[in-house]
Amino acid sequence: ANIFIPFAAILLIITYCGIIYHFSFFEAIDYINLLGIAAFLFFSRTKKFAHYKYLGLPLLRIFTGLALFILAFTEKLLFPYKALEFLEHYHLNFMKNLSISVLDDQFFTLSAGSVEAALGIILIFGFITRINTIVLTGFFIASNIYFFVQGYYPEGFTELTGHLPIIATAIILIAYGSGHLRPSINP
Length: 187
Fold this sequence. Notes:
Distance between the termini: 35 Å
Strand content: under 5%
Structural class: mainly alpha
Radius of gyration: 18 Å
Helix content: over 70%
Low-confidence stretches: none
Mean pLDDT: 89
């Protein structure tokens, strides 16, 4: 309906604060991209702060990159047991499935975490944003397709639901690029 968007952005920030209160800051930091989405919505639709509209897109990109970078460490690099447990149950290590025995689950987890951290850093700094986002989206779509092809429908829908905010962000970043942290100068 495209109405009450600044109000929705404020509610999203309040919801994020509720996540911090209910689950702890260290659990909520994995979803810091929600603050970027709220900033994008707020700055792109608030008439009172129209002169800050240029901040919406870069904040969306930076917070999404931060979320990816943080998730790379919290779920794969610093605490690999989470990813290893996940791989043991769902056999998502496609390299092992291709009989490439050098890439065991530990190496796969390290590789996935490194790639996720690199993609996050690239987003944070705004380099090749569109290409980076297309690659990132490809990984998300591939993981979702895997669950559905393997018959893990509840897990597939959970994965899809978790990735929807990032996929929506990806559509915006592919369409508009990285944005600028300084206002454009019109001659």
